[in-house]
Design brief:
Layout (H helix, E strand, L loop, with lengths): L2 H10 L5 H14 L5 H10 L5 H18 L13 H17 L2 H18 L4 H4 L12 H17 L9 H22 L6 H17 L11 H16 L11 H5 L2 H20 L10 H27 L6 H16 L1 H7 L3 H13 L3 H9 L1 H8 L2 H4 L3 H37 L7 H13 L1 H4 L9 H9 L8 H13 L8 H13 L6 H17 L10 H14 L3 H14 L4 H24 L6 H19 L7 H15 L6
Helix pairs in contact: 1-2, 3-4, 3-5, 4-6, 5-6, 5-8, 6-8, 8-10, 9-10, 9-11, 10-13, 11-14, 13-14, 13-15, 14-15, 14-16, 15-16, 15-21, 17-21, 17-22, 18-19, 21-22, 22-25, 25-27, 27-29, 28-30, 29-31, 30-31, 30-32
Length: 655
């Protein structure tokens, strides 16, 4: 099929007329494995005189055919794409990416990924024609295309073991000297455009993948490594341009120059955490670790502290940047070199950076009011924790009291007690509600340490009665939620007055009917700890029907795996006593399962909460069946409810 005919067929595949479109698609499918067809698609893609919509559909077909048929699906199968076509595509694909407009470049990038993953390392030199020693004179698109290919190559070997990574070391030895020169050149550009941030980001990603599991031997050379660190120092130190920053919060955090800052932090965190401690290093890496620790760890700590000072000044930093910066401080706590530098500034770090991040803030308040379901989802999503400044702040204070508790625990708790005191003494209209929330979060986060450490251990019951339980009746919703959570963290302590345990249990149960959704969810999760700690089930037995009723009301509102954990604990604790409720529980859990499954299948946000909750429902059903396993007369009643689930999940559909 000549190019003119191919362009016409591609245009018909775009037709709004169903018959024309079907005829075009059938013609393309008929020719998809004919020699020269794949090359023809690539020629259409790069033809500037062809309509952009036709070029775009050609790029999509090129991507799809390559992904499906570049390599035989089974050993021994006859190749569907000729070696001649493959060779031509390999030789010209990178150049096509360089010349293509962005809307087409995405499809060609996916095609390049297929080719590289299938053919590397045999054909890699042909895939990187733009990497040579004269990059300063080349245009940005050409550099971008070469870096894009190099990123795909290095990422392929990111998680490989030492033996499997041997091919990537060839790439590193060949390209890293050039990459360093490119990076140094880009950093010298005055007032760089936003497109420059994309180039720098690609170089950073290449470095990240290349040094993720092992520092390449090339970087053990002190002058070479020092030159790279000087570039990273520059990237951390230089302020992010204010001109051009989006005002929309979602666009702003994804802006190119903030991405550069994020990837620089990623790299330095990884180097220090994995390779920067001589005591934890392999013998062959000890010299490198000593070099990093002595020459660079302290300098970068200074830059991290400078970056975090923006938090004290109420300036803007993306959440992920704050999170990564605190991770470096977290690592610094356990290393004597950096801890000695950090120690004189700990009051500033703890009370002007860490504690404010732990407090309920305006963003939390807005989300609580406008979208309580999203507030709950974010609060229980482990993926969100990777980006959360609050989680990073909690991790820092937890690490500090674990590794350096004798020097810091008393000081921090004295501050928290002062927050409690100011709250108690202030008039209702002037109480620092958000700071009280942060103080409660701190106390809950340190529960494991406080439950083991005197004199705090013996004061916990008084603290709960004095500062936590009263907040169950607060008019402020987020304090009621935090009170439930903290109460759950300490449900297993030894109470000198059992009435305090009972009182807290009843408050948690009452909170299951709170008008605010986040309070109800936190209360159900806290209930699990009380059920586990309860020595006398007679305190729960009379209210068991009420608990189950409220539980399933909440299950109908939110998909949350932690809710199912509480139900499992109740079923496990009461065993055969659950028999009267077994059928109803299974029916409710089955209904919740189908709802969660449907949610996970229709969710376009790649959010796994529905799937996780569905798995939790199945696990809870299993726990119920196990608890009544000696009562086989119940099983026939459950079969109509459970058989459809088994039919779905144990057949091809369920896979």
């Amino acid at each position: 099929m000549d190019l003119a005919t191919l362009a016409t067929v591609l245009q018909s595949a775009l037709s709004t007329n169903p018959d024309e479109r079907k005829a075009g698609e059938e013609r393309l499918n008929e020719y998809q494995h004919v020699e020269g067809h794949l090359v023809g698609l690539l020629q259409i893609v790069v033809a500037a005189n062809v309509d952009l919509s036709i070029r775009q559909v050609a790029s999509i077909y090129l991507k799809n055919v390559s992904a499906r048929d570049w390599m035989p699906r089974e050993p021994g199968d006859r190749p569907k794409i000729s070696e001649g076509d493959k060779s031509t595509v390999r030789e010209n694909l990178l150049e096509a990416i360089i010349q293509a407009p962005p809307i087409i470049r995405v499809q060609l990038g996916e095609c390049l990924k297929t080719v590289i993953h299938a053919d590397y390392p045999e054909h890699w030199p042909g895939l990187l024609p733009a990497i040579d020693g004269n990059l300063k004179a080349q245009d940005q698109q050409r550099i971008f295309g070469a870096l894009h290919a190099l990123r795909i190559l290095t990422r392929k070997y990111e998680f490989k073991d030492e033996e499997e990574r041997m091919p990537v070391y060839l790439i590193i030895n060949t390209t890293f000297p050039v990459l360093l020169e490119i990076l140094k050149y880009l950093l010298l550009l005055p007032n760089p455009a936003i497109e420059i941030s994309d180039l720098i980001k690609l170089i950073l990603k290449i470095f990240w993948s290349s040094a993720y599991l092992e520092v390449p031997k090339l970087l053990h050379d002190a002058p070479t490594f020092t030159a790279w660190m000087a570039c990273f120092h520059n990237l951390l130190e230089r302020p992010v341009p204010t001109v051009g920053q989006p005002t929309d919060p979602e666009l702003r955090k994804a802006w190119g120059w903030w991405k550069v800052k994020k990837w620089t932090l990623h790299i330095l965190n990884r180097l220090y955490n994995r390779f920067g401690d001589p005591k934890m290093s392999k013998p062959e890496n000890k010299a490198f670790a000593q070099m990093f620790q002595k020459q660079f760890s302290g300098k970068f700590l200074e830059l991290y502290m400078s970056l975090l000072s923006v938090v004290r000044e109420d300036g803007y930093l993306p959440d992920r940047v704050i999170n990564l910066a605190l991770q470096y401080l977290n690592t610094s706590v356990s290393k004597s070199v950096t801890y000695q530098l950090l120690k004189p500034r700990l009051d500033v770090v703890l009370f002007e950076i860490i504690f404010p991040l732990m407090c309920f803030n305006d963003t939390d308040d807005r989300l609580w009011r406008e979208d309580p379901h999203e507030y709950v989802r974010k609060g229980y999503d482990i993926i969100e924790d990777m980006y959360s400044p609050r989680t990073a702040a909690i991790n820092f204070i937890s690490e500090l009291v674990r590794k350096r508790g004798k020097e810091n625990l008393h000081n921090f708790l004295t501050f928290i007690v002062a927050v409690f005191r100011r709250y108690d003494e202030a008039p209702v209209d002037q109480k620092p509600y958000k700071q009280k929330d942060g103080a409660l979060l701190a106390v809950g986060a340190l529960s494991d340490k406080l439950k083991q450490t005197e004199p705090y251990k013996s004061q916990l019951e008084h603290m709960l009665v004095q500062h936590v339980y009263p907040e169950f009746s607060s008019h402020v919703g987020h304090l009621r939620a935090k009170a439930a959570w903290v109460a759950g963290q300490y449900a297993d302590i030894t109470f000198t007055d059992q009435r305090n345990f009972t009182s807290a249990l009843h408050r948690v149960v009452s909170a299951l009917t709170d008008p605010e959704l986040p309070v109800r969810v936190d209360s159900v999760v806290a209930l699990r700890a009380f059920v586990e700690a309860c020595k006398d089930l007679s305190e729960i037995r009379p209210i068991l029907p009420q608990l189950l009723d409220e539980f399933f009301k909440l299950m109908n509102e939110v998909e949350n795996e932690d809710l199912v954990f509480t139900l499992e604990t109740i079923v496990d604790k009461f065993g055969e006593e659950m028999a009267p409720y077994a059928l109803g529980l299974c029916q409710n859990l089955a209904a919740a399962f189908w709802k969660c499954l449907q949610s996970s299948e229709t969710d376009e946000d790649d959010d796994d909460s529905g799937a996780l909750a569905a798995v939790g429902c199945l696990r809870a059903i299993g726990t119920i069946l196990e608890s009544v396993s000696r009562l086989p007369n119940l099983f026939p009643q459950m079969e109509p409810t459970l058989l459809p689930i088994m039919q779905r999940m144990l057949t091809t559909d369920g896979q």
